[in-house]
Design brief:
This protein is mostly helical. The chain has one domain. It is 67% helix and 0% strand. The protein contains nine helices and no strands. Helix 1 packs across helix 8 and helix 5 packs across helix 6. The longest helix has 26 residues. The protein starts with a helix and ends with a helix.
Length: 206
């Protein structure tokens, strides 16, 4: 296997582990950092329709993702057995928590494997539609494995485009390996996809 292919494979594996880590932490939260449940409830308590509440959530998470100080300074979030640059892992965490909160706000069981798969698919952003076509009606380990492999590949490629050849060897720079403006754009995109999957599509199906 060539070095480049090996790097891509390593990146996919690291992203896969980071997605699972971020999801588990998003559900339980950290000291001083709200869980997806708490985040969702804080916006559900606001005035407006469900869609307006979700839009407000996305807006503020985008603002946070654009602030590298917030993203790289999550403290306890970075205590993990992974060799992923802090800013990349924390952006993934911020986005996973946002998507999971949106799913919860839409009345979905965020412990369900199918919902978890949809959360990961949302992380693919504009590539989510393609992945949704492949989703089986039945949820299970096979579906989860297939989903996380495809999403990890897409995320590894996306991050690679921004100059991170090997996530395991990347060193966070001042301002982050991935710039704040890129973080904000991707966070807005995955937020809109999550809203479409968990809120808007549900409304249409009723």
């Amino acid at each position: 296997m060539s070095r480049n292919k090996q790097n891509i494979q390593d990146n996919k594996s690291l992203i896969s582990k980071t997605l699972n880590w971020a999801y588990s932490k998003a559900i339980v939260g950290f000291t001083g950092i709200d869980s997806a449940y708490d985040l969702g409830n804080s916006y559900l308590s606001q005035e407006g329709t469900l869609e307006q509440q979700v839009d407000s959530l996305i807006k503020w998470q985008v603002a946070k993702a654009a602030t590298s100080g917030f993203v790289t300074g999550l403290g306890g979030v970075m205590i993990m057995p992974l060799t992923v640059p802090a800013n990349i892992a924390s952006v993934i965490y911020v986005q996973i928590r946002m998507i999971t909160a949106i799913a919860y706000m839409g009345g979905h069981d965020i412990h369900d494997d199918r919902v978890k798969s949809l959360v990961y698919i949302s992380m693919a952003g504009n590539g989510a539609k393609e992945l949704l076509k492949d989703m089986s009606v039945k949820a299970g380990e096979k579906l989860m494995t297939k989903t996380i492999e495809k999403v990890s590949a897409k995320l590894a490629a996306k991050i690679g485009e921004k100059g991170v050849a090997n996530l395991g060897k990347a060193v966070p720079l001042v301002g982050g390996v991935v710039g704040g403006s890129f973080d904000a754009v991707t966070t807005r995109t995955v937020g809109k996809v999550a809203k479409s999957i968990f809120i808007t599509s549900d409304k249409k199906s009723r």
